[in-house]
Amino acid sequence: MGSAVRPTSTTPASWDAFSNVDAFVDEVLAGLTTMAAEGTRTMGTGSKPGLAGATLRKAVMAVWYVCFCGMQWRAIGQLSGIPFGTLYTLFARRTRLRLWRRLLDRLRRTWRLACGNTPEPSTVVIDGRTCPSLPSCFVRGVDGGKKIRGVKVHLAVEKYGIPLAIDAAPANVHGPKGIVPVLREIAGRGFQGPAIGDLGYRDQRLAKAGEALGISVRPIAHGRDGVFIPTEIAFISILSRRLKRLVTQAAPA
Fold first, then answer.
1. Do the Cβ atoms of 232 and 164 come closer than 8 Å?
2. Which range marks the domain in which residue 178 is found?
3. Are 93 and 44 in contact (CB under 8 A)?
4. What is the pTM of this model?
5. Both 186 and 232 in a single domain?
6. 105 shares a domain with 134
7. Whole-number mean pLDDT of the chain?
C-alpha cells in the first residue's frame, strides 16, 4: 500500500459532524464545475433556469442535512425555502451522473497521497453489515444468525476505512454471494490484488469468482495478522473536512 507517513493530526478537540459543512459544499460545487467543463449536462433540459449562487449552495447543503440528519425532503424544503421537488431532482440527477462516486474517488486519492501512500490501494478489506429496514426500503430479508429483518450492506474498503464499492442486498443474502458485485465493481475500475475478509468468506465459488476478476479472496481469523448513496456523501464530508484542516495547519502563521 506504499510507505505510510503519519499525516498532521486532523482530529479536533471534540468531533463535530456539523463542523466545516462548507468544505463539503465547496467540493460538490467544484465537482459540478469540473463536470460542466467536461461537457456533462449537470442541469435538466426544462425551461426553468438552474439553481446558482447562494441558492445552489443552500440546495447542496440541504442534501447534506438529509443524509446526516435523516430529514425528509419536504421538511428540509420548508426549512431551506427551496421546493422539495427541486431539491430531490438536484440530488437524483447528480446521483445518475455519478457525482458522489466521482467526488469520493478524487478525495480518497488526495487523502492517500497526503498520507504518503499511492493513490490506489494494493489490498482491500471486504465485509458486510446487516441493518434493520422498513418494508418500503429496498427488498428485505431475514438474517437468520442475527435475527434481523432488513438489508445487508456489502462493501470493500481500503486501509483508511474509505469505501471503494458498496452494494445492498436482502439480509438473507450471505456474505460470499453478496460480496461478488462489490468485487466486480472494483475490478472494473482496475483493482487487481488481495481482498481480505473474515472466515465467513471461505467459499470455493467466491474464490473462483474472485480469481476470474483478478482478485484473490483471503479469509483470515479475527485478530490474526489482520491488520462501511448516503455513505458516499458522508465520506465526502469527512474527507473534505480532513483535507481542509491539513491545508489550514500547513499554512504559515
1. no
2. 120-222
3. yes
4. 0.77
5. no
6. no
7. 84
